[in-house]
Amino acid sequence: MRFSVIILLAALFISCYAKQNQGLTITEGVLSVGVEIGYPPMEYFDVDGVTPIGFDIELTKALAEKLGLKVNYIDTAWEGILAGLDAKRYDIAVNITILEERQKKFNFTKPYIDSSMTIAALKDSQIKIDKPQDIIGLRIAYQGDTTAQFFTEKLKNQGLIFTSFSYDKITNCFDDLLLGRVDLIAADNIVTFNYAQKTDGVFEVIWQGSSDEYIGIALKKGNDALTLALNNALEELFKNGTMLEISLNIFNSDLVSSVKY
Known about the structure:
This protein has 261 residues and is of the alpha/beta class. It has helices at 2-20, 55-66, 83-86, 100-103, 147-157, 170-178, 189-198, 224-239, 242-251, and strands at 30-35, 44-45, 52-53, 70-75, 92-97, 106-108, 113-115, 117-122, 139-143, 163-167, 184-188, 203-208, 213-220.
């Protein structure tokens, strides 16, 4: 009898929670996630080539569970990922640096991880960078429409002469660095340190800026109900240690506790 009562109460709780979150998402009961699955260790495919894994994948699974939703990943080209929110292709876009200009056009959750700009090179290249201005005369690659592009554009606006190359995926940047087609890569520290670690010292970070960039989840402008629900769920994940657990699992280090949530 007691077991039946427990089952009934659990069913009522799930039912109430589901009703509470009705209308939050484009597809009822599903959190659709726009993500460029080619940015390790944040999001990339497992060895089978079809299963998405990485920090943002684990994060959104945990968020969806908190909201009583299933999760669906929609692999999207980076240059169109924010436009997909306006087109209602998905509910959220992850791994988006929170910039003032972007906040004018989209809703953002509170940040869930911070990062800094870095410059990476081949370990045996002998290139030394004490400051960003030292890239004069060199060839630098970056993923287009990212903060790395904005970073290199600011340097060019200072009158510095160097050659820059825009790629659609960060993986292609590292491929061409390995082939000697470029000298340097500008990218966030999460990515560059991951490549340095995973490739047994083939790549190294030769310059790192201050940690003044914050990454959050972007939503269609005006989607305040889902933004609030995600913020509440994020706060729970920070408080109960889930965020730290995911960070340790993916990065082997704590990259989340410094976030002022």
